[in-house]
Structure formats: C-alpha cells, structure tokens
Amino acid sequence: MSIISEYVRAGDKQGTHFLRPERLSPWQVRMMTGSLPAFAARLRSAAIHLLVFVTLIAGSSSCSLAAAVEDGVDLARVTDHLALEQSLSILEDRDGYLSAGEALRHSGWVAASLRTLTQGFTSSVFWLRGAFYNGSDQPVTRWLSVGVVRLEDVRYFRFAPGEDKPSETLLAGNRTPLDSRPVKAARSVFPITLAPGERTIVALRVQSRSSVSIEASLWSPASFQEADAPDLLIEMLLVGSMGTMALFSLVLGLARRDRVFLALAAGAIAEVIYDLAFQGFLYRFILTGGGDVVLRAPGVLGLIAHVLLCTMAAMFIGIDRIAIWWRTLCTFSAILLAGSLFAAFGDYRTTVSITTVLQVVYEALWIIAVLDSWRRGFGNSRLVLLASGPAVVRFFLYLGHILGIWPASWSVGSEITWNNLSIMLLLLFIAIGRLREIESARDKAQQDLVAFQEHERERLQRAVDERTRELQTALVAAGEANRAKSEFLAVMSHEIRTPMNGMLGAIHLLKSMPLQGKVRTAVNVAERTGAAMLATIGGILDFAKISDSKPEPSYAAFDLHTLLADVVAIMSLRAEQKNISLKLVVDQVLPATVMGDADLLRQILLNLVGNALKFTETGEVCVSATPDSIHVDWIRLEVEDTGIGIPRDRLDRSFEPFVQADSSIARRFGGTGLGLAICRRLTEAMGGCITADSQPGQGSRFQVRLPLPPTDAAEIDIQAAAQQGDAIRKTLSVLVVDDDENNRFVLSGLLDVKGHRVREAADGVQALALLIEQPVDVVLVDLEMPGLSGIELVRYIRALGGKGATVPIVAITANVTAGVVERCVQAGMDGYLSKPIMPEELQRTIDAVCAGRPPAQSDSQMQRDDFLPSLQQELGAETVDRLVGQALAAVERSTATIEASIQRGDRQAARRAAHQLAGAAGLAGLIPLSAAAAALENRLAQSSTVEDTDIRTTLALAERAAADLRGIHPGLAHKR
C-alpha cells in the first residue's frame, strides 16, 4: 500500500511515471535519443525484412487484424473467459508524460487490435481503456488479466462515469513484489467488482523495457484458477523431462569426458531456466520480490541457451572441422555472450533489441553452415537439420513476435508446448546420434584392441608356455604334497582311532560294572575325554575332505520342517544333559517342501547347534527359520544362544580354520575351531552365505541364508517312487560276493525284496567263474575274503574283456577309512557301502552306479539305531529273527575262534575271525563291536604284537553284544 500511496500523493500528472528523462543518466538519455537507438532502428528494419523472408519460406501466412470497440462489457455475461482485444481502445504516449485523467481525456484513442497490442521494444507508454457494467441484479466480481508475464510496469485505474480522477489505483508488473499485487499470479490480474446496474471505466497503463505485447482478458475467478493449473502442470512435466535429459547428458559427459554431452547438458539446463523465466514461473515461485533480476533474466538466459545449443549442435555435426564456419559461429557466439553481459548490467532495452536482431543473423548463418556440412557429406548434419526444423521455424516466429513484427498468435501460440517440445526433439535426436557415435567409436577401439592383442599374443606365447610349464611343475609338487597330507591323515586317523575305539569299548564295559565314588567319576571323565578326542579327529578329517575338493551339492526335494525337527530332536539329549532349553521356531509361511541338499543343510545345522550347546552353560538355544527379506526363494536360518559370546573384532576370524576366540576358550570348552570353517565351506558350496552377530556375555546369533526354492510336496513322493520304480521297472542281475553266509543272507534278502535276481559267490574264484559264465548288472563284493580279496577280485574283473570289464562294482566293508576308500577307488570300484547296510542306502547306491553317476555318501550313522526296525520293515520279522540268530551264532563262534587262536599264537586265524566278527556285527547294527573288531583286525595285520587290552576289549564288547542279541531274539520271535 505504501507504493500505491506514493503514486497517489505525487499527483495526477507526475505520480504515474517512473522513466522520466530527468531521472535518467546522461548515458541512458543518449542511448534512448542518440546514435545507438538510430543504429538499433536500422538493425531492426533489416531484421524485419530478413524475418519476413525466412517466414515466407517456412510457409507462414499473414493473419488479418480486426478491432472493434464496444460501448461496454457486461460482467454478468462473462461466465468463463472473454478476450478483450476488440472491446478496448489504445493510446500511445510516446513521451510518457500523461496522467490517468489526461490520458482518459486525450483525443488519440483508437480501437485496439492484435497488431496494435504487439509493439516490440519501445520506450512509449501504452494506455488501454474499456467500459464495464453489471447488467444483473447481483454484485459481480471478475478478474481483468493483462499479459504477457514479462511486462515490467502495469497500472490499473478505475473511474466512475463522468469523473476524471481515479477512484481506485492498483500496481502490478514484474517490478512489483508478488505479495503487493492484488492477485498472486504470474500475469498482472486486477479484480473488478460492480454492484447491480453499476458502470465503470477502467484505464490500464503499460510500460516495459522488455518487448511490449499486451493480452487483455476478462475471467471469472474460478475459471482463471482452473486455466492456470494445467499450464503449470504441463510446464512442470516438460521442464522435468528437459531436466532429466540434462542430468543424463551431464552424467554421460562426465563419465565419458565427452564435450558434446557436456554442452548438451549446459544448453538444456540454460533452456530450462530460461523457459521458467520467460513463462513467469521464476517470478511466481522463486524471485517473488520482483525487480531488475526478473526483468533481465529472460533476455540474458535466452542468449546463453541459444549460443550453447547451437554450439553443441555444431560440435555434434563436426562443423569445427570447417574452419571458416567454425570461426564465424564462434565470433557470433562471443558477441552474443558479450551481449548477455550488457543485458545483465547495462541498458536492457537497447541491448536486447540489438542482440535479438543478431540472433536472427546468427541462426541464419548456423542454418547455412549446417546445409554446407550436409553438402560435404557430414552424416549428422541431416539428422540435426531435420530434427531442428520445427524448433527453427518456431524460433523465427518467436523473434518476430519479440520485435513486434506480428502478434503472438502468429508466433508462439502455446509457448510452453512448442518451445519445450521442439527443443526436446532436437536434444533427443542429438543424444541418440551421439550415443551411436560413441558406440561406433568403442567398437572400432575394441577391434583395434583385438588386433593388438592378437599381435601381442604371438609375442607372449613363448613366455606363457614357459610359465605354464613352471606352474605345471609346481602343481604336480602341490598335488604330491596334498596326497601326502591325505595319506598322513588317513594313517593317523586309523592309528589313533584303533586304540581309541578299544579304550572307549573298555570304558563302556567298565561303566556296566558296579563302580563307586571316585572310580565312577574317573571313568566318566575318561569317557568324555575319549569322545572329545574322537570328535576332534572327525572334525579334522571332515575339514581335510572339504579342503581337498569343494563339496558338490546333490539337489533334491525334501521336507524342510521335518529336517529342522530332526535336528532339534537329535540335539535335544545334549541340551537336556546340560539343562538348556532347545527351541524351534518356524515361520508358517515357509514352504513345507523345498529343493536343495538336505544332507549338507543337516550337517550345517548340527554343527551350529552343537557349537551353541557347547558354549552355553545356562539359558536357551533357539533355532528359527524365516523367509529371507532380501532374496526371493531364499530362506534364513538362525541359531541363537545365550552363551559366552564372541567379541565383535574376532567374529570374522571365528570362521577361519583352527581359530577360536582366545586360548582360554579352547582350554575351557575344548574343540579344534573347525566347526564354523566347515559350516562356511558347506554354505558357500550351496550358493549361500553365513554371518554372525555376538555380544560377549550375552550370546551369539549365527545366520545362514540359502537358496531353497519351494517345490511341490508331491516331488518327494515322485523321487521316492522314482527310486523304487526303477527297481520295479528294471529287474537287475546282482552278484553278491562274500565269504560270510550271514552277509550273503542279508544282502540277498534285501535285493530279493526289491525284485532283483541275486547270484551268490563265497569267494573271488567262484565269482570270476560266474561272471565269465554269465554277465551281471552289478557286483557287491566284500573286501576281506580268503584267497582272492575284494581288491584283487576287482582288478581281475576289470581285466576281463567285453561287457564284464565295465560292470559296476560296490564294496561292502565295516572299516570305512580314508585309506580304504582310496584303495577302492584306485582298484576301479564305483562305490562303497558301510555296514550295517541300510535298505534305502543299498538301493540308492545301486541305482547311482548303474546310472553311471557317483553315489551320494550321506552320513547315515545317525540312522544305525533304526537298522533292525528298518530291516524288519523290509524283510519281515521272521527274516530279521533269523538274521539275529545267525549274527548271535557268528559272534559267539568268532569270539571263541579269536580267543583260541590267540592262545595258540595263530595270528592269521585270529585276524580272519576278527574280520568275520566285524562283518557279522556290522550287519546286525552293532557299531561299537564292529569298530573294535575291525581295529583288532588291522592291528593283527600290521603289527607283530597285539596289546592284551585290545583283545580283552573286543571280547568284552562281543560278550555284551551277544547278551543284547539274546534279549532281542525272543522279542522278535514273539512278534512273529
């Protein structure tokens, strides 16, 4: 209100002028009245002729201008929008001295038209006059909008009929702060409110250092706001698209150090800011204080954007290779950029009017340069010329409008759409073309690189061959060392396990005796120590096996929920012994059936749960399974305990072999530090990952993420049916070679149940005769037999000619060590089975070797307690009863033979009896006795002296096993 009051108090004759001559500097007066305006006028005249010529070539046609002034406009009839070009009168005040009253009484008023409302750059003041009335019986409010948004000073005067002094004065234009304007909009908007039957006369004073183009309209307030929103939305969408393209070009330019993309990004950014300033959005939302910056921004930024875009297109075409055009364009570019500085800080009207004319010349030269480059065969010139065609036509029309040659309807129409879309089209085509150039250059560089590499390959081949020979030599040495390590581990395992089995057997026997006090405590300590030592040896061997070769997962469908429950059930006894709560939490959204390697997953979980129980003294261990939040079809398994925890700085090292948190842990809890290393190797072999989180004194949480895609539950049945169906669909001929009648009886019974044809041989010679007589599909052979051993028999079979030489052979042994397995492989066997023989494991192994694939060796030791029930289910109670009876007889007979042979010094007879005892015990599921007998057999075969302790331990275990079998035998007979 202070600005309005200043103008009102200054009087009717002087308060309405802000560009009086006396307020201008001498330099500005000369610029307006001296030689520079005359020069600008001449340039303007030349530009007019050039623009008319170019526009006629572009096919533009003139439009007729009409003007009509009505006596008045009824506000009540304007329900939406009314253009006022034919309803207003216009007066040009060349000196700018007229006050509102003087202008209203002036005799120079003429009817307004589109042509008279478009004046271009001029120092004149323009007055608009219109009459309005309310022909309704209700008060009416309408908004009078005066465009364009770039007008610097717009003043509104309202007169009562017959009065020459304004009853209301309002200020607008971009020099006025937005908050001081009657309506906050980019355009100058003045509200007109009339009572029923009231008439009024409105005078508008327009003066601007920018190009003068006046668009007057009458709106209902709601219609104005509705029309303003789509314009803003379209502008934001197009500006956002242009900004995205600029960012894309900037990233490519910086990444590839490409000057075309950098220039494109700079030009696009300048074009975006220019468009916001030209459309008034910069003033509407950012520079709301108005003033000189808002006025000068369109002219300055327009010059910069024009130069950057033309320079970018010229570089893309390759005009910089044409010296004369490149120098000409660079010279004009420098002049226009200098003009932008003058427009920013000097006489804005004169500078912009001159640079606008220069832009016409610059654009024409640019077009000629592009045409010449097309003539010279520059491929991109045609692309740029065709893509920039709409933008060039629009640009010339726009410059004609700015210079006042033709009205806005000839030039820009919807300025937002045409300006942005045409520029975006040009930039899009240039960006695509430049990317193609870069790809072509990259392909050529790759071809050159390939040629260079081929040239260098021949030069380096000799060095590579020499280095390869050195590496092969080193590889052979490493293989020998690894083989020596494996042999050492196998030997040491056997040498340590043999006395340990004897020791544990003796301890087990002692525990069955009545012991009191400290003696029983000492026996318990010895048992725990021996079990820990065996576990340590087993861990070392497992890690050595994994280190020698990466485990190959065997993917099959399995029941995840059942596997988790089995793991918890297996470890629950250890948890109860330590009075620790072992819980299982399974998310119900997990699929019941998944695809993966159940054996490896079970080993991982058993190791983690075993670790958790070992390092937890009080509290609980929780096993949980949930869907993984990162990967699809992955499952997250967690084992969390309330144990001693691990310091955070040692978590990563805990997964390294033979590493524990500190030495006190090893002394207190024991172990080798291999459990987590094995878990990591197995997890990575299954394509997953394992992490840990721990807090000392609060516990640890180990998290395993594995890809376990869900599958149909019927898949398990299909696999089982496939395994069983193979046997049904294809009856195999199987040769069982074993000197023990009991072993042949069990194997033959299991094979008969599956529908196979079984032939038996009591020794290697008989087996060879049967094979020569009639080939079979698979051979099951015991390793230790009188005459030809199992290993020797395999070598003879492989030496046979014809089909018999390739028959699959499976070893049957109770002594599964690394050395035994290696001997079997070297001899040419296809697989092995450890006693006792589980029915499903027998069938699975036969199917695998007959199909030509290695059998999956699962850790079935946990299932041995279920051997007799499983055998009874397969063969029936009567057959199992007979097996138990035969096993009992074999144990008693072998025990007596061992004792008698040792007494008379017949080591070979004792060794054979020990072998028979190990086999018989193994087939009956008597694991401790089988292990002790096998250890005794090895000692008798390798050492000249045998400790009495080994013999007594084996005989004691045999006596106890016989007692157990005597207890089982009547029970089975009763079931029958």
Automatic annotation (TrEMBL):
<feature type="transmembrane region" description="Helical">
    <location>
        <begin position="232"/>
        <end position="254"/>
    </location>
</feature>
<dbReference type="Pfam" id="PF07695">
    <property type="entry name" value="7TMR-DISM_7TM"/>
</dbReference>
<dbReference type="Pfam" id="PF00072">
    <property type="entry name" value="Response_reg"/>
</dbReference>
<feature type="modified residue" description="4-aspartylphosphate">
    <location>
        <position position="782"/>
    </location>
</feature>
<feature type="transmembrane region" description="Helical">
    <location>
        <begin position="261"/>
        <end position="283"/>
    </location>
</feature>
<dbReference type="InterPro" id="IPR003594">
    <property type="entry name" value="HATPase_dom"/>
</dbReference>
<dbReference type="InterPro" id="IPR004358">
    <property type="entry name" value="Sig_transdc_His_kin-like_C"/>
</dbReference>
<feature type="transmembrane region" description="Helical">
    <location>
        <begin position="351"/>
        <end position="371"/>
    </location>
</feature>
<dbReference type="Pfam" id="PF02518">
    <property type="entry name" value="HATPase_c"/>
</dbReference>
<keyword id="KW-0812">Transmembrane</keyword>
<dbReference type="InterPro" id="IPR036097">
    <property type="entry name" value="HisK_dim/P_sf"/>
</dbReference>
<feature type="domain" description="Histidine kinase">
    <location>
        <begin position="491"/>
        <end position="710"/>
    </location>
</feature>
<dbReference type="InterPro" id="IPR008207">
    <property type="entry name" value="Sig_transdc_His_kin_Hpt_dom"/>
</dbReference>
<keyword id="KW-0547">Nucleotide-binding</keyword>
<protein>
    <recommendedName>
        <fullName>histidine kinase</fullName>
        <ecNumber>2.7.13.3</ecNumber>
    </recommendedName>
</protein>
<keyword id="KW-0597">Phosphoprotein</keyword>
<dbReference type="InterPro" id="IPR011622">
    <property type="entry name" value="7TMR_DISM_rcpt_extracell_dom2"/>
</dbReference>
<keyword id="KW-1003">Cell membrane</keyword>
<keyword id="KW-0808">Transferase</keyword>
<dbReference type="InterPro" id="IPR036890">
    <property type="entry name" value="HATPase_C_sf"/>
</dbReference>
<keyword id="KW-0418">Kinase</keyword>
<dbReference type="GO" id="GO:0005886">
    <property type="term" value="C:plasma membrane"/>
</dbReference>
<dbReference type="Pfam" id="PF01627">
    <property type="entry name" value="Hpt"/>
</dbReference>
<dbReference type="Pfam" id="PF07696">
    <property type="entry name" value="7TMR-DISMED2"/>
</dbReference>
<feature type="transmembrane region" description="Helical">
    <location>
        <begin position="324"/>
        <end position="345"/>
    </location>
</feature>
<dbReference type="InterPro" id="IPR036641">
    <property type="entry name" value="HPT_dom_sf"/>
</dbReference>
<dbReference type="InterPro" id="IPR001789">
    <property type="entry name" value="Sig_transdc_resp-reg_receiver"/>
</dbReference>
<feature type="transmembrane region" description="Helical">
    <location>
        <begin position="383"/>
        <end position="406"/>
    </location>
</feature>
<dbReference type="Pfam" id="PF00512">
    <property type="entry name" value="HisKA"/>
</dbReference>
<keyword id="KW-1133">Transmembrane helix</keyword>
<keyword id="KW-0067">ATP-binding</keyword>
<keyword id="KW-0175">Coiled coil</keyword>
<keyword id="KW-0902">Two-component regulatory system</keyword>
<dbReference type="InterPro" id="IPR011006">
    <property type="entry name" value="CheY-like_superfamily"/>
</dbReference>
<dbReference type="GO" id="GO:0000155">
    <property type="term" value="F:phosphorelay sensor kinase activity"/>
</dbReference>
<feature type="coiled-coil region">
    <location>
        <begin position="435"/>
        <end position="470"/>
    </location>
</feature>
<dbReference type="GO" id="GO:0005524">
    <property type="term" value="F:ATP binding"/>
</dbReference>
<feature type="transmembrane region" description="Helical">
    <location>
        <begin position="295"/>
        <end position="317"/>
    </location>
</feature>
<feature type="domain" description="Response regulatory">
    <location>
        <begin position="733"/>
        <end position="850"/>
    </location>
</feature>
<keyword id="KW-0472">Membrane</keyword>
<dbReference type="InterPro" id="IPR005467">
    <property type="entry name" value="His_kinase_dom"/>
</dbReference>
<dbReference type="InterPro" id="IPR011623">
    <property type="entry name" value="7TMR_DISM_rcpt_extracell_dom1"/>
</dbReference>
